[in-house]
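Practice record 12: protein with S-adenosylmethionine.
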Amino acid sequence: MNKFNAFPIGKERKEEIRETYKNATSFQTRGNREIFDSKHYTWIDSPLDGPNIIDGKSFGKSFGYLLPEGEASLRNYIETTLARRKSKAVGVEFGGIGSRLFSEFTPGFFAKSVGVSLLDHRGRTDQLARLTERDKKINHEVLEGNIFDTETYNSLNKKLENKKVDLIIERMGKGLEFVPIEPYTVSRILQTWYDLLREEGVMFVQVPVVFNNLLETWVAKIKKELESVIEIEYQKGNSDAAIHGACSAFRLRKLPRAPSELPLLDPRTVRKIPR
Ligand SMILES: C[S@@+](CC[C@H](N)C(=O)[O-])C[C@H]1O[C@@H](n2cnc3c(N)ncnc32)[C@H](O)[C@@H]1O
């Protein structure tokens, strides 16, 4: 590693991307066994606001510092922010099943929701069939795929009939092990999600804590250059999968006249930012 512990470049960068992708692909075949037998993940299909920990820590507890002052409920914030889309709203959880999450919104608020996960790891075959039937009642589906695969977005767009999305949420916790620690690959995905987001839509996105310095610099840039068209807040955590406390994450709202592409840090700036 070079003198100030920079992110990988050149060959090292390609290797990081290849290795992470290979590990994710292998997890798609062995993941169910590892989750059931050795509790590889304890956040399986987490609740929206809690308070109980059922199959994972609530999203509200992870994203609490991103809510406006005085707002304690993630559900309330999202439903208020998207009030005009009530009963038409479309939501996607990337890196998760999303079934319990979307079932905890006011019934009918979301017309359609999808959880994108490497695999549906909620149960063995018969149990899974039952859960999938239950999902149909709230028009929720699980799409098995890697968020770094173009094919995943082709399938997602088919499921969404090419509609834009009002809510994007990603809180992978320990699952961030399958995200390469490589800023350009991660920026490309953020760009894809931003493009998918409808105007006035909102996204909550966890980033690995190793990107804390980049997150801070990037948010400052958006606040300075685009405050009137992109609303953004961030929080910094100490650990990706902490049971207590916040994670590193941002909340972004695409306001009217927001740019069609998400403004990112230029490569020269990224190279100067240490991990
Ligand atoms: C610890 S679980 C968290 C699940 C859910 N977000 C929650 O909070 O309950 C990690 C999740 O990340 C997903 N994941 C990790 N890497 C992924 C990738 N590259 N593409 C899609 N899903 C991924 C796994 O399939 C798993 O569902």
